[in-house]
């Protein structure tokens, strides 16, 4: 249970919502309908789970107006989108430790860097030359920031983030531990079998309100820059190649790999484990389902694309696989049959 | 060759096994049957490789009783499971450098933390407030440990591990470099196209005897905790989403991704590169073969599941792919033929 | 625009190429034909893009002799392989910040280590005992290097690289941030359901001119060593298991996973997201296309292998998937038809 407590009335006002029940009901945490205990607020997003209303131990529930029975007893906050309301309330119960403002004595800061007021820089950070860190930014311990980097207002780097030289990050960003931004793109030219390095002369430009997951990597551009637009959400262990452009408000789930020079539209959703080839373009609002491999451009906005095969009992799959590998033979036999029919 | 040396008798006693041959035969390392040199001990797990017994240069061999010919000359240790016996002996030849006990002068330790006796904390570690580190734990250099973390007895964090606040790790654990435990789960609610962060209020609870590979990430729970039970083995570059529960003694190979809120049973084996969707349950003792995508729950324990397609010459594959994409047409043509037959 | 400027004559001489036009034309950067501005040099690799020659704002172009029209005006450098020429020139415009030679005062260096002249060791590096670092090597800040490691001449470790004990790296290597070399291989023997650790007694040996991407992991060998030969290029987020041998001049793109004890030939190209099973051998000059799963050995050199399925509209894919899962039924029906024909 959190040490933070809010009254039902406070939470409703915070959301700009109406409420039913005891305005002084004290909420000290969030729980799902099934797991909530007394003192928790919960939410009912999907009307199919209405039966949980009878058994939940939550002290209050965020609910759509239409799911509320007449004369239902209890404490409720009315919301069009209870899941979104839950998301907003979750911020009130966030227990991420606060840090001490100022620069830790052990941080190494290169010459010409400008650290604004209200910034926190943790122990053993290494900050290069001519780095600009804007007001309210929080650089947790052991981050390494290269020369000429810029970090916008209220952006947080969790511990052990690495930013190479010249990377720019906008405002209100959140980069999780182990993220590496601005490493060299995979550029190699072949000379009689031997790879010659193509030096990567661009950098990475990240917009405002971008969240980047743990151990995600984003390579710097070969000639121009790799660009992540405003509001993009990237999960853990994602790899984004050089020169990629990710459009605003696109979400990219874990373990996705995007090869170089691909341009992804705005408001796209790319599910876990997707692989996207290089040098293609994806239109806005495209959804790609988990485990798919995208091999060519999608020019029409708004579609859903897939190629993943769901696992099944292995003997079944092996039989199917044997048939698949002999599809040509099956096709030939059908042709023979068709010819006989004529 | 290791600087550690053991007599054949010592090794047999260590294993609780019988031996044949010279009890004073000195063993200074381990080799495979094919590559062993004099002074090595080797093992024969699979009777199909018995011919190697004639050519190996190993000074001693761990062998099943049934694979031993009558009057065979040489030095042997008898074991029901030579591979397991090899595993046990491998600990004797481990050359992981020992560390100096105590806390390095450069480690930063927050107030209220309790470091037990016999603990080693390396240079440039950053340890938060109210952290409990139990006896015999080893925290290698440059680890970052958040507030309110707990680390059990004899657990080792290799260099550059990051633990976020409130993460709990049991006894005898081993976390490899670059592992990030407790980063935010990928929780976002959509408000008119814009993602609103869902603050992640749970943490990660890891049991005893758990090994976690290099650059693996395990996200903290959204509301409740992400849980890794006792004896779980996780390889490198694995991503485990928020609220996931991995049952005891399950093994997860490299590059696996497990989406949020999925529950995996005990004694499962998940091979490399598998993707597992969110919000499903997998029964105990299930095996998932490499490169498969698991999309729905498995309720029966003990099965093997697959969906990976093995690579083949690309022209063959492209022909099959063309047929696959036209499977509907083939089906239609078979229907036409069937109708004509009637 | 870079602060570095070179005359057209200088660049041509640097390449050993002929040039046409104004020898004093000043080049201060590189741009693609489409994006170049005045002062940039560009290149035309593919004759299909010749129309860009009329519109590009580049001040000079690297071009094949055959693509040059008679009496064409402008500044040109003639090259057999303009892309390779671009790669070579890119080194001249590299803006990776230079470092101060010498060992930063905060670096911790274990006893018995030998640091050659002309080496740079950044802040908060932790270097073990008996480490040998050869002339011209550059160890950026916050790297952790275990005991008995060897690093060859002019090799660069970017920030936050971790090398476990005994790892050896050749000359002119480049390891990107977050790379972990020498972590334990995933070795476990099962004893009545419980995993027993197999201690990993080998190490990792990396040749000359090897580049390793950000957050890539290479495990140490179980008994012998994991080996990466000369000239290998490895992208980000690649996982290489224990005992793997990667042959010289092979390139491995992002998110590839290679399971233990597999041997990959020389001059191979492994595209993004490929999964390769353990204990197999791949011949020289083999190409594996993106998203494929390789399950068995390839004994013939030079082929191209594939098994990835390109994503398509999800309704189409689901229909195909339904047919695929019923392939056995289709086969049976074709057999019935064939029997009736007889």
State the separation between the terminal residues of chain A, measured CA to CA.
77 Å
Number of helices of chain A: 4
Per the CATH scheme, the topology name of the largest domain in chain A is UDP N-Acetylglucosamine Acyltransferase, domain 1
Task: Tell me how many strands of chain A there are.
Answer: 40
State the helicity of chain A in percent bands: 10-25%
User: How many separate domains of chain A?
Assistant: 3
Percent strand of chain A equals 25-35%
Largest sheet of chain A, described in full?
11 strands, parallel
Q: Determine the mean pLDDT of chain A.
A: 96
Oligomer: homotrimer
Briefly note the structural class of the backbone of chain A. alpha/beta
Helices and strands in order:
The structure is a homotrimer of 342-residue chains.
Chain A: E1 6-7, H1 8-15, E2 19-20, E3 26-27, E4 29-30, E5 40-44, E6 60-63, E7 76-78, H2 82-90, E8 102-103, E9 108-109, E10 114-115, E11 120-121, E12 126-127, E13 132-133, E14 138-139, E15 144-145, E16 150-151, E17 156-157, E18 162-163, E19 168-169, E20 174-175, E21 180-183, E22 188-191, E23 194-197, E24 204-206, E25 211-212, E26 217-219, E27 226-228, E28 233-234, E29 239-240, E30 245-246, E31 251-252, E32 257-258, E33 263-264, E34 269-270, E35 275-276, E36 281-282, E37 287-288, E38 293-294, E39 304-306, E40 312-313, H3 314-325, H4 327-341
Parallel strand pairs in A: 4-5, 5-6, 6-7, 8-11, 9-12, 10-13, 11-14, 12-15, 13-16, 14-17, 15-18, 16-19, 17-20, 18-21, 19-24, 20-25, 21-26, 24-27, 25-28, 26-29, 27-30, 28-31, 29-32, 30-33, 31-34, 32-35, 33-36, 34-37, 35-38, 37-39
Antiparallel strand pairs in A: 1-3, 2-7, 22-23
